[in-house]
Write a structure and sequence with these properties.
four-stranded antiparallel β-sheet; TIM Barrel; globular; 290 residues; eight-stranded parallel barrel; alpha/beta
């Protein structure tokens, strides 16, 4: 039996990098840290995964971009961010003051007309490696609310993307998998073959809400990513399945609202967790974990 309380406060390792504990904040749920310093002591965190970062600045998807659903919410933010140079020059220096491990979530973009994702990932990894020291790179191959080609289930593509990021990164590489698949273990094997140092899962489930008065989708982008407690059983199941096929470190994500939820991920095979829902529901509770 694993001592779950002890694991909650124990160092966690990916590759040659040791993180102070397995409690991280999930990308897209804490921005770049500026808005949460009044609520969380960032110095105590095992890591903070900053908002999805792209080569060029992005305004994101049309509004409305967030809608509440039973036991969760749908979001279609669309990776709004200042671009990699804005993150390097403006956002990371702010976080460096808190001496919290910084993990940069990187995203390549596909549109309905073109896909530069592979070259985007390569260039992002190179720019970060050459210009700033970070504690990890999380490859976002699974964002459900960016319009365009869905390559998250293409295992050959996944393997190649991971390989090119790994080749150009100085920091440990984590690959964030999509739950919108019938073969999560196949995806895990593909990214392991590509050389990822760890796997994080799951990203949001693709969903939709329709306004029965207008009989139209509520979100400006029509579909978005479902997060919150509603997806936790799916995340637990997928973490468990992936643990059966890999010995790589696994970071569990999805609908965590209390310490017992974290323990459930540990029991399923996760070595660490990323908190997202808790940032919206009871962010002060995070301080009690340390």
């Amino acid at each position: 039996m694993v001592d779950l309380e002890k694991k909650l406060r124990s160092p966690f390792k990916i590759g040659n990098k040791v993180y102070p504990n397995p409690i991280w904040l999930a990308s897209g749920t804490c921005g770049f840290g500026e808005d949460i310093t009044d609520f969380i002591d960032l110095k105590k965190l095992g890591g903070i995964v900053v908002k999805g970062t792209t080569l060029k600045p992005r305004e994101g998807n049309p509004t409305p971009r967030v809608v509440e659903t039973p036991a969760g919410m749908l979001n279609s933010i669309g990776i709004q961010n200042p671009g990699v140079w804005g993150v390097i020059k403006e956002k990371i220096p702010f976080l460096k003051k808190y001496k919290v491990p910084i993990i940069v979530n990187i995203s390549g973009i596909c549109t309905a007309d073109s896909c530069s994702a592979m070259s985007d990932f390569e260039e992002l990894a190179k720019i970060i490696a050459d210009n700033v020291e970070v504690d990890g790179i999380e490859i976002n191959v699974s964002c459900p609310n960016v319009t365009g080609k869905n390559l998250a289930n293409n295992m050959l593509w996944l393997e190649k993307v991971v390989a090119v990021v790994k080749k150009n990164s100085k920091a440990p590489v984590i690959t964030k998998l999509s739950p919108n698949t019938a073969d999560i273990t196949g995806m895990a094997k593909a990214v392991e073959n590509g050389g990822t140092d760890a796997i994080s899962l799951i990203n949001a489930l693709l969903g939709m809400k329709i306004d029965i008065k207008t009989q139209q989708p509520v979100l400006g982008n029509k579909m978005g990513g479902l997060s919150g407690p509603a997806i936790r059983p799916v995340a637990i199941r997928m973490v468990y399945q992936v643990r059966q096929v890999t010995k790589l470190p696994i970071i569990g994500i999805g609908g965590i609202i209390c310490k017992e939820d974290i323990f459930e991920f540990f029991c399923a095979g996760a070595d660490a967790v990323q908190l997202g829902t808790m940032n919206f529901v009871d962010i002060n509770q995070i301080n009690s974990f340390f």
